[in-house]
Amino acid sequence: MILDVTTRNSIYNPTSSQGTWFQHRWGKRDYPVLDLSLELYNTIWSQHDTVALQCVYGDPVDWIHFDAFLDSVTKDRYAHVTTYGTRAIDNKKVNVVFLLDGIEEQCGKVFLGADWTNIKQNIKDTKGERTIQFYLYEHNKYQIPKIQAFCATHDIVLRLHYEYCDSTGRQSIINKNKKWLYDVKPHLYDPSINYKKEKPVELYRTIWAAQFLKVYNKGKHNFSILEHPKRKQLKNKGNNTGYTYVTPTGHAFVRSDEYGMFMNMLCPDWNIDFRSYDEYEKNVGTFAKRFSECYLDSMLLEQ
Fold it and tell me: Is residue 217 over pLDDT 90?
């Protein structure tokens, strides 16, 4: 059971849905501030012995009911939390995945606002099983030996993560206020490389990205899916049994693609040309048609 409990986040990751979707690149997207209600959480928790907290926009530790969540994980219950590491989690029954874009001077280059000194201490103070998901880039790959040594010292599982990017091979780091800072290039780990000999590289804005970013304007296109769902659709025949993903709005979905599309459509920065030949835009249009008002109402869980 995966619970997307909040859209609140003290870290801004412009490469995530916070700042990136198929028609958006410039600045923080206009998603609503949402928190899964404590009543609904308690109802779900009473029916399961394991839950995972991870968010499309937010960070579970910024959920307004996070302390109550920690208190609820007792006895034979277990939980998993995926976080940017701005808080230590002192419950041994909560397994934690820390998302890192680098250590030391490279921390916070992609996940804007992240601070390694603070995160490192929070990782050390966390009581449950710990995993670090280390996002690899050309500018931080020289830190691989250091993060490997850190994880070995502190009994932490390490995942070296390659982040898919667009056709330019780079990701543009644009802050909340639409200022283009620089571009980063994801790196795929290669065991044949001697990373101890690698050096940091300078970050700058590239001409390839400049051409690519021209197609994205800086204004709104449409309405949030909750404000303007498509009509004339058949009612959902399901009864919300066997759902896997619960959103902070209280909607439940079985499929990850449906959940992800719904969350991205909470922002008003998309508009569909149903005559488009673009495969992804056609896919978005398919979901936009599916998410009729009656369909979304049928996806709401009772508290």
Answer: no
b/e map 282-296, b = 16+ CB within 10 Å: eebbebbbbbbeebb
* The model scores a pTM over 0.90: yes
**Which structure tokens are listed for 152?**
């070995």
Q: How big is the chain, counted in residues?
A: 303
Taking residues 133-142, report their average pLDDT: 98
Predicted local confidence at residue 68, as pLDDT:
98
Secondary structure of 213-252 as H, E, C letters: HCCCCCCCCCCCCCCCCECCCCCCCCCCCCCCEECCCCEE
Domain ranges for the chain? 2-216, 220-303
Who's near 194: CB < 8 A, 6+ residues apart? none
Taking Cα atoms as reference points, which of 220, 109, 222, 231 lies closest to residue 173? 109
How much of the chain, in percent, has pLDDT values that exceed 70?
Answer: 93
